[in-house]
Amino acid sequence: MKRLFLLAFALLVVAAPATAASPAKQPVATGFYQGQEVSYFDFGPIKLKPGNKLAPIWTVTNGAAGQHNIIDTVPGKADYSPLWQLNMVTFKDGSTPHLLKSKADVDAAVKAGEVTVTATNTVVNCPVLGFGQKKVAGFSNGTSSTTTTSGRSRWRRVTS
Predict the structure, then answer these.
(1) Predicted pLDDT of residue 92
(2) DSSP-derived secondary structure letter, 131
(3) How much is the pLDDT for 109?
(4) Is 89 exposed, middle or buried (0-12, 13-18, 19+ CB in 10 A)?
């Protein structure tokens, strides 16, 4: 019995480094910033203690085809944070959904009475790519060519 245990333990020790050396590739999501498409990693919702720097992100719950999440800051700006406070944007009944590609578009849709915006307590960790950050070999490889199969982020289904 002791010999079987030692054999199993030895196999785990040998297999562990091979598994640890090949991390899974993180999918890259697409969003909008000032009317342009941007790419970001979506690490999903996180729990935080008070006092963290957060930036707003808007997700459209019932948008037009091709709608992505909307951000209003990017790396290099003083108000940038990879931690985003989620705001849910919903087109009202009787309004025809159309693409919202910037905070200005969201504000205009609110002013026109087309949408409601609901702030949530949900915070997501979504670092934006492609604004001069350091390239980390074996992680992002400095590229953002991978996209999610649905084109939407996992956390978009969060309702609280």
Answers:
(1) 98
(2) S
(3) 98
(4) buried
Question: Which strand (E) or helix (H) includes residue 109?
Answer: helix 103-111
Strand order in the sheet with 69-71: 45-46, 115-125, 83-91, 55-60, 69-71, 28-33, 36-41, 128-129
Q: What is the pTM of this model?
A: 0.69
Domain ranges of the chain: 26-157
Q: Are 44 and 125 in contact (CB under 8 A)?
A: yes
Structure tokens at 37: 């498409």
Classified as helix, coil or strand, 97 is coil
How high is the pLDDT of residue 133? 63
| d(C-alpha 79, C-alpha 93), whole Å | 34
Mean pLDDT by 10 residues, the chain (160 residues): 40 40 74 96 93 96 97 95 97 98 98 98 95 55 35 34
What pLDDT, on the 0 to 100 scale, is given for residue 50?
87
Structure tokens given for 137: 């070999």
d(CA 12, CA 5): 11
- In sequence order, what E strands does 67-153 have? 69-71, 83-91, 115-125, 128-129
